[in-house]
Predict the structure.
Amino acid sequence: MEPKLQALKTRLTEVNDLQMAAALLQWDQSTYMPSGGAGARGRQMATLSRIAHEKFTDAAVGQLLDDLTAYEQSLPFDHDDASLIRVTRREFAKSVKIPSALISEMNQHFAQTYQVWTEARPANDFARVRPLLEKTLELSRRMAECFPGYTHIADPLIDFADAGMKANDVRRVFSELRAELVPLVKAITDQPPADDSCLRQFYPEAKQWAFGEGVIRDYGYDFQRGRQDKTHHPFMTKFGLGDIRITTRFNEDDLGDGLFSTLHESGHAMYEQGITMAYDGLPLANGTSAGVHESQSRLWENIVGRSRGFWEHYYPRLQATFPENLKSVPLDTFYRAINKVQKSLIRVDADEVTYNLHVMIRFDLELALLEGSLAIRDLPEAWHTRYASDLGVTAPDDRDGVLQDVHWYSFNIGGVFQGYTLGNILSGLYYAKALEAHPDIPAQIGRGEFGTLHNWLRENIYQHGAKYTAPELTERVTGGPLRIAPYISYLKTKYGELYGV
Amino acid sequence: MEPKLQALKTRLTEVNDLQMAAALLQWDQSTYMPSGGAGARGRQMATLSRIAHEKFTDAAVGQLLDDLTAYEQSLPFDHDDASLIRVTRREFAKSVKIPSALISEMNQHFAQTYQVWTEARPANDFARVRPLLEKTLELSRRMAECFPGYTHIADPLIDFADAGMKANDVRRVFSELRAELVPLVKAITDQPPADDSCLRQFYPEAKQWAFGEGVIRDYGYDFQRGRQDKTHHPFMTKFGLGDIRITTRFNEDDLGDGLFSTLHESGHAMYEQGITMAYDGLPLANGTSAGVHESQSRLWENIVGRSRGFWEHYYPRLQATFPENLKSVPLDTFYRAINKVQKSLIRVDADEVTYNLHVMIRFDLELALLEGSLAIRDLPEAWHTRYASDLGVTAPDDRDGVLQDVHWYSFNIGGVFQGYTLGNILSGLYYAKALEAHPDIPAQIGRGEFGTLHNWLRENIYQHGAKYTAPELTERVTGGPLRIAPYISYLKTKYGELYGV
């Protein structure tokens, strides 16, 4: 079997090389590319994605997978070779259903749409992106239609990001969660609001950058295998397990923006940096699902980075960095400020408690768009309506409404947002298991020590990459399926203490 | 013929997309890539280059070219379609002789060697790169051997860069040039040396950057279709005609380093930015040869950027930028400093008069290596010997000897250096023609106005891209072949006045 396996790995690595090059084209488009490069860039990304898809879906790959079936079955389930063959077979079965031309068309369209969005958002000009978004919806439907037999048209798209989940599964989990969150939000927002004015002062970008970078170094993000740059919308990307980058953005009038986005993206990046190096270039060298990925970013951003213990250690350093802003602000005031719960307009700036309500709005709108019960032209209004009913707020314009998130303007519609809330739920679930194993973790965080937690995550989650599906991983780590109780318990304990509810 | 031509363009654009992505991988490796990315990066560039080569040398391309012969012959020589078919046919005929595996092997090897060189040079550790360089020489020979029937083994490699020239042609031109340069250098260096101490003070990088960027904006380098970053070794690269970038490096203890490298690379970039946009993605969208390319960089760096008129305009601005360094330094002293002729160690820092002697050393060493009359292990010593005999200087170590230039550590050996001196010769030749057409150009330069010169170059050289070979272009622009007289006359006039010789 050795030569067949080697042949498979060679082909998969070639495909990966093309995908990583496409990722670099995208990173560059978001960070440094001059505007004149946009036209060719979309075409280039489309070409690379199409060739990668053609090479992956080649009949020779199917033949190799068939030839390797007996070898796979002779091995234990979690043997690396068996896992590579199993995971590749699953991706192959999906990919062969999608025409290369559609991949190419989508990538070219997304690159163009992204470019227009970067100008349309500051200009509050939804009309400019509307025809592009209509095309996105059409392409997203065509992608879903490659998988006939679905229950809901969003199912195939959700499956790409969170394999094993269907629209109805997500709805069920979200509805269970909403039943807990709505009364919690009400109880909290019935209290006097926290004062977060200390965050809304002038914080020079260079100092914000240095402080955030210092924290993520302490977390264990490896700058030998990564770097941080600035973009409109923060993200994590990789060009191999030796080069996993994050981006951030800063708001000099709001300390929280840049800092927590840095911590967030470092969580994504540490997950990928922790994957077994031997998987590099192969389909195992990926986070296993959008939800699990998000669990890692939210864990480091919120459970760690917004905890009282964390700030007992870092607040003196932050005060020393920004003495003019913070020297007379007590730790408790600062801690309340960064955990202020409020019904607000912007998802990425939302507190932990209301955040999921933002996600649910997007998820429901995605389903409605795909079903055809909502048209793109009515989307801005539908957005405002849902924000009014769910969060009691109305954006003054589309800039902070339907134009706020990059996702629909750089990817398909559908399967994109559920991962954020699944990730929150999983972050609580996994963290509870880490605490069971190492009850000392919160005390360590209070000393700025993250090694025990980082190692537990590497051991239990990171190293496996895509070897286990999200349900398999969760079963393995927690002994059961995804459940919301530990996350709800985390929220109630933390915010109960903060708001006396 | 329309569908065949369209099919050819589609294929060529696909090949170009892969090449441009490979160029971005390389740019990123030189600018921002963390060290952990190096391993996969070489493989990725190799994969993309190989697939581009496979797609370009596909029999279908040959068939399309055959099918288009009649159409080509029905058109005037300089019709865009005829030129595209002609130039593509020429490149195709060369490319099909090279196995894709060799392309892949070379690219992977170059990426690895480059990475090692970036560490070996500061460490003065030739031994570390020696085995890699031996492999480079072997690969370079194998590349040349793909073209049997050559007179000199370097001929096929020279042909890639400066089509139409053979080793013997270059030798003849170089020998003619050397006969003029050696007595000129002697006459100048018999005079008291210029005082360039005003350049060797502390010049903060940020201010150098801003000043240089201001000049190249004035030149006409378009930052909407380009940008500047920092690298070990400055270069120009492109990812399409809408995205043509330059890199530079700064030395805070020497003003000339960064400034003139910026002007130099901007010349390369303006050439590419001036190519007819309709050629984008096709083989016509390239500078036509190494020599012609270099003529544009040297023209803007030296003939313009080291001229007295230029500094009559810019010196007050430079003094205002660096008052502590320059406010008491007269223009004449500064002008002499930036044109100081001296026998020195570093090619890129060499003055206009001695520069070509540096190139000739490298060219001769390349030929000797390829012929087998010089071994890589003896290269550092051969380098020192030639510098002692030709320039009367000896580097204290290999850092400023054989390790100084990136070329052999990131590309093949052979065909690499002759373009620099051909470029100098052509810069004098073309500039003389521009002056014939517009005698007012020097006066305009003295007012910081570059439009007439830039437009003349765009009209006569830039727009054509690779439509004409270098000999065709030179014939077209100057009415005759390459000749050294105008360049020698430029040097003698300028330096005769400066040194009274």
Remarks:
- Chain B has a mean pLDDT of 97.
- The radius of gyration of chain B is 22 Å.
- Residues 229 and 425 of chain B are 29 Å apart (CA to CA).
